[in-house]
């Protein structure tokens, strides 16, 4: 028997930054500031990410390119690595992402790449905690309650029956 299934998700869309709650507005501001510190001499596409931890601490990351592509790292993975390395017992609860092209913020929100989506999914799985994703553009901002909205059929070892230790 063939079944046709649909996957959909809900997200909030905001036209103005002042419509965001104060915590999300602060996180977007930190992500936008982080963009200015990105190292992207090859693509000229700079990305900043800011992660709020349960304690309220905010960590940030930027994309860092390398001439020996793909040796660089995305802003989201950079920020998550920073959070895990320096605040291992403090769970991420939200991540804001902003991008800049041609020296100005992108008009529309830029979602994380596939690798970053998988890393966010792994962190949700590791901590048992949903991570809100705030995608910020100049003209609008999207808020997604969990990575499952952007990565509905996740690769996760918990999905498989194995004899792994």
CATH superfamily: Cytidine Deaminase, domain 2
Helix content: 10-25%
Q: Note the total helix count.
A: 3
Q: Which regions have little confidence, pLDDT < 50, spanning 5+ residues?
A: none
Major β-sheet profile: 7 strands, mixed
Question: What spatial form do the alpha-carbon principal axes imply?
Answer: globular
CATH architecture: 3-Layer(aba) Sandwich
CATH class: Alpha Beta
Strands, count: 7
Integer-rounded radius of gyration: 16 Å
Q: Classify the secondary structure makeup into a structural class.
A: alpha+beta
Mean pLDDT: 94
What series of H and E elements makes up the topology?
Answer: EHEEHEEHEE
- Calculate the terminal CA-CA distance, rounded to whole Å: 36 Å
The CATH topology is what? Answer: Cytidine Deaminase, domain 2
Question: How many discrete domains?
Answer: 1
Strand fraction band?
15-25%
């Amino acid at each position: 028997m063939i079944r046709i299934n649909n996957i959909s998700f809900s997200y909030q869309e905001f036209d103005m930054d002042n419509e965001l709650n104060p915590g999300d507005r602060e996180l977007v501001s930190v992500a936008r500031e982080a963009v200015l510190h990105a190292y992207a001499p090859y693509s000229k596409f700079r990305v900043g990410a800011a992660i709020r931890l349960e304690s309220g601490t905010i960590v940030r990351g930027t994309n860092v390119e390398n001439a020996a592509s793909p040796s660089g790292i995305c802003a989201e993975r950079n920020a998550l690595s920073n959070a895990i390395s320096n605040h291992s017992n403090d769970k991420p609860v939200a991540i804001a992402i902003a991008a800049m092209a041609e020296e100005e913020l992108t008009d529309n929100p830029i979602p994380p790449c596939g690798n970053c989506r998988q890393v966010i999914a792994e962190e949700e799985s590791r901590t048992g905690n949903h991570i809100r994703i705030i995608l910020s553009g100049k003209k609008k901002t999207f808020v997604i309650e969990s990575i499952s909205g952007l990565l509905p059929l996740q690769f996760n070892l918990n999905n498989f029956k194995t004899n792994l230790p």
